[in-house]
Amino acid sequence: MGIIKSDKLTYEYIIRDEEGNVDSIKKAVDEVSINVESGQFIAILGHNGSGKSTFAKHINAILTPSEGTMWVDGKDSSDYDNTWDIRQTAGMVFQNPDNQIISPVVEEDIGFGPENLGVKTEEIWERVNNALESVKMTKYRSKSPNRLSGGQKQRVAIAGVLAMEPKCIVLDEPTAMLDPNGRKDVIKTITELNKSKNVTIILITHYMEEVVNADKIFVIDEGKVVMEGSPREIFSQVERLKELRLDVPQVTLLAHELKKAGLPVPLGILTKEELEDAICQLF
Amino acid sequence: MIRDITIGQYYQGDSILHKLDPRVKIIGTIIFFIDIFIINNICGYALMALFLAMEIKISKVPFSFIVKGLKSVIIIMLFALAFNLFLTQGTVVFSFGILKISKEGIRMAVQMLFRLIYLILGSSLMTLTTTPNDLTDGLERVMAPLKLLKVPVHEIAMMMAIALRFIPILIEETDKIMKAQLARGADFESGSIIKKAKAMVPVLVPLFISAFRRANDLAMAMEARCYRGGEGRSKMKPLKYKGFDFTAYFIAIIMLVIAIFSKRFNLPFENF
């Protein structure tokens, strides 16, 4: 069993009308079964309202399944006694950087998690220093978060999770509110964490460019996993992705159009370099 | 207008006053408040003025900065002055129609004025030399005995810390909403006070909605980082007393003793 495993996980929202009667029941997550091995970089894709964020909240035990089971590091999230262990194992970074920073000073915010865990003072400082170093924010340690850019705030949020020494970090659309530079910084930071510290990353996003380096991609639509596989496998099915109202990386799209126009380019091209090579080989 | 209020603001510096433990500053300020309400003669007030002046000198906070705090409460001070002046019973000195000013009234009014000024100067000096974090940390520790009375001390301190973090964000948001409304023809400037107040309603409604949304997000983010109340939490920056903190306590106690004994040094002309 992997670090994160879900079995037929279902989550239902009850929609009520104005008098509070049950109007209908919507399955936000519908029988999702996935298995993530330790150290993997996983991406979950889906358009708005596909249920990907709802699924992500299950990994951190913020939500518990209506039906089915979620195991995080072998612990069942439905059991309340496991909640705090699970939250320590799987840290979570949210979309809005402003709404997840608690303290008015950067370093104190990073210390917030370890403080909650009851870690000793000297060790908190050590963890904070390491976390700041990992996200390259040591320079800004005594600044107010209000003075930082979006990308920097999001890196502080990642450091805040890192200081709890989790085995896995779930990032719920961490780049949705950032400018392109901030977006690049955040993705670079998490890729490095995955490589150097072997932290399992689960990245939820709808920016396709961010997931080309992932080990595995899950595509969720209307609460169901509709596609899964390596980035190459997923992005070779351009037509299918369009049906699911998802974009493909520009390069992949270009390669796809070239192929449609009759050029023998291989399927599932992910980077500019690959496309360059492929085109060069034609002549 | 919001920027004029110095109470609760921090003035960066590295004086001894800045370095004092926040608990000392909070308890010291409370003792100072007791002092100024015990004292009832000129001698005592002069002594307190001297003491305050010395503290301000040590703190290196510019005097003009501290006085700014007085400006924002000038109306309250005038009210207190008027009430004491006209409503205290006693030997009448002047009278205009129904308004009578008594000897005791003048005395009370002057005393109240001094007390209020000292109160505000003293508390601004404390907040100006203490970072908001130290202040909430200090308050949490000073109020700790109240836990026995089931007062949620940790929660109150946490709420204050979060409020301090979100004040600038919400001010920025108010600005954004106002600009958005201005762009669509809203008018916040002209008209009577009532009209201006009514114009604020369309600003406040979205502001409240967004504040609730932020609160919801923040609560989730805090839970995700294993926050479960004050129980079993450790401290990244625990408060520790240093040598000069005890000196400061000692000075505060001496001031209290002086305040109690100052009653005996009534100058003859004060008993007019």
TrEMBL record, chain A:
It comes from the Bacteria. InterPro entries: AAA+_ATPase (IPR003593), ABC_transporter-like_ATP-bd (IPR003439), ABC_transporter-like_CS (IPR017871), ABC_transpr_CbiO/EcfA_su (IPR015856), ECF_ABC_transporter_ATP-bd (IPR050095), EcfA_1 (IPR030947), P-loop_NTPase (IPR027417). Pfam families: ABC_tran (PF00005). Keywords: ATP-binding, Cell membrane, Membrane, Nucleotide-binding, Translocase, Transport. GO terms for molecular function: ATP binding; ATP hydrolysis activity; ATPase-coupled transmembrane transporter activity. Residues 4-247 form the ABC transporter domain. It is a peripheral membrane protein. Its main location: membrane. Gene3D superfamilies: P-loop containing nucleotide triphosphate hydrolases. GO terms for cellular component: ATP-binding cassette (ABC) transporter complex. SUPFAM superfamilies: P-loop containing nucleoside triphosphate hydrolases. It is found in: Cell membrane. NCBIfam families: ECF_ATPase_1. Belongs to the ABC transporter superfamily. PANTHER family: ENERGY-COUPLING FACTOR TRANSPORTER ATP-BINDING PROTEIN ECFA1 (PTHR43553:SF24), HEAVY METAL TRANSPORTER (PTHR43553). This is Energy-coupling factor transport system ATP-binding protein. It comes from Acetitomaculum ruminis DSM 5522.
UniProtKB/TrEMBL annotation, chain B:
One of its GO terms (cellular component) is plasma membrane. Its main location: membrane. Keywords: Membrane, Transmembrane, Transmembrane helix. The chain crosses the membrane at residues 26-53, 73-101, 113-131, 151-171, 243-262. It is found in: Membrane. CDD domains: EcfT (cd16914). It is a multi-pass membrane protein. This is Energy-coupling factor transport system permease protein.
